[in-house]
Amino acid sequence: MSQPNSSELAVLKHLWRGGPQSARQVHDAVGPGQGWKPSTTRTVIARMEEKGWVARADVHGMAVYTATLDRTATLGGLVRHFARQVLDMDGPIPAALFAESPHLSDAELDELDAIINAAEDKKGDKA
């Protein structure tokens, strides 16, 4: 599976934190910091929906979006990709580096540690 880019990650982080949101709510929270127009936010969300990373539901006639990607698994994949492919790191990656993140609970940090330090498959890391 491919990894979310920075725009998609901004939307995911907002949905993970805030739960189901309309495109307008996502835009109001994320768009200004990204320099997006409302149409850009809708385009990013639509592409994420096509990838299966967000799910759309109609609530009282309004489209509401929910993140379908698991937060810990997604963040773990990004960390692992960066450490292995960008920094060429071998060996364990200390998940404790992320202990101050507002995005992860203690249980999620334990899960993150397991994800980023999972045994590499024989073909190498494809994250």
From TrEMBL:
GO terms for molecular function: DNA binding. Keywords: DNA-binding, Transcription, Transcription regulation. InterPro entries: BlaI_family (IPR005650), WH-like_DNA-bd_sf (IPR036388), WH_DNA-bd_sf (IPR036390). Pfam families: Penicillinase_R. Transmembrane segments: none annotated. GO terms for biological process: negative regulation of DNA-templated transcription. Belongs to the BlaI transcriptional regulatory family. This is CopY family transcriptional regulator. It comes from Hyphomonas oceanitis SCH89. The lineage of its organism: Bacteria, Pseudomonadati, Pseudomonadota, Alphaproteobacteria, Hyphomonadales.
